[in-house]
Amino acid sequence: MAVAADIERATDSTTDWVAEHVQQYVASGGTEGHDWRGVPTLVLATTGARTGEPRRTGLIYGTSGDDLVVVASVGGAPEDPQWYRNLLAEPQAGVLVGTRKLTVRARTAGPEERGPLWEQMAHIFPKYEDYARRTDREIPVVLLTPEA
Q: What catalytic activity does the UniProt entry give for this protein (predicted)?
């Protein structure tokens, strides 16, 4: 996967404010947009599960060791977000985190690791707790492990 190319040529989120944030983030090479309303964000470029085309979105993140941690909340919607479904179909993805471009492999946190990671992410962005109350699904916590 050509990380920089996929991040550069990917189709943006259909949510206007997310697309604007991601476009600014990418256009600046990561010097603008990493801090969004007081929380750290990254740009995730996935491969579309149906189209095979690169898609990108901005996500709040935390860390666990060398891994980046993101939450597939989509505001507490009843279904998982498309970016998460894309990762289930193709776990290799591109990430722009600050000014670093990485290739990562995604995996959903298992039951034993999910609890502490959820708590960490809810501390970073407390609205995740509200989102969890809005839905019957267990919101996935995803680890993005950089590839060598």
A: oxidized coenzyme F420-(gamma-L-Glu)(n) + a quinol + H(+) = reduced coenzyme F420-(gamma-L-Glu)(n) + a quinone
Nearest to 6 by CA among 26, 20, 31: 26
pLDDT tens column, 7-49: 887 888 888 888 899 999 999 999 999 999 899 999 999 999 8
| 140 vs 88: CA distance, rounded Å | 11
Whole-number Å distance between alpha carbons of 4 and 28 = 13
Token pair belonging to 127: 């609205």
Total-model pTM: 0.93
Q: Which two tokens stand for residue 122?
A: 């809810």
DSSP 126: T
Architecture of 3-146 per CATH?
A: Roll (2.30)
Q: Is the distance from CB of 58 to CB of 42 less than 8 angstroms?
A: yes
50: which 2 tokens?
Answer: 């149906």
The helix or strand, by DSSP H or E, that contains position 34, with its residue range, turns out to be: none
Contact 133, 76 (CB under 8 A): yes
